[in-house]
């Protein structure tokens, strides 16, 4: 089992939680992004820079995913592809996506795209709060306990 992070949009505080977990549990963790990223010196953590372009990082994450891996992303289409390959997906706010919930999330995402394309201002997500970070850390602990047994 490894952890792959959709790192272009992953908040710094979430990456820091993941870095600590990678070293504490000796889990291979890879940040995938189309820009150069800093990661702490660790045998368990690496950054992989992919070329710029639409969905290049997402496609690389899907390519690298094996059944049982944990992917950190808020990207719903990426999450759906990872789940189809047998991976687990946790978003930076602590929501665990599953086969049971991903279809609803895809439908909502598509609906919001239609609204935005028709000129409706939908706003973006709220800033990551302390509560969100705690929810992420708690859910991460639960899933890693399950996956590393």
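^ structure tokens above, recovered residues below v
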């Amino acid at each position: 089992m490894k952890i792959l992070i959709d790192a272009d949009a992953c908040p710094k505080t979430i990456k820091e939680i993941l870095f600590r977990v990678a070293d504490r549990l000796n889990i291979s963790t890879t940040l995938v992004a189309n820009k150069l990223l800093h990661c702490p010196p660790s045998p368990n953590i690496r950054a992989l820079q992919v070329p710029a372009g639409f969905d290049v990082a997402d496609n690389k994450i899907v390519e690298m995913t094996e059944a049982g891996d944990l992917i950190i992303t808020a990207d719903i289409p990426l999450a759906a592809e990872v789940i189809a390959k047998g991976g687990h997906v946790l978003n930076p706010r602590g929501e665990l996506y599953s086969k049971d919930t991903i279809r609803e999330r895809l439908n909502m995402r598509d609906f919001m795209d239609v609204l935005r394309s028709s000129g409706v201002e939908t706003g973006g997500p709220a800033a990551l709060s302390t509560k969100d970070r705690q929810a992420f850390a708690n859910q991460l602990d639960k899933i890693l306990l399950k996956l590393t047994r």
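The chain has a mean pLDDT of 90.
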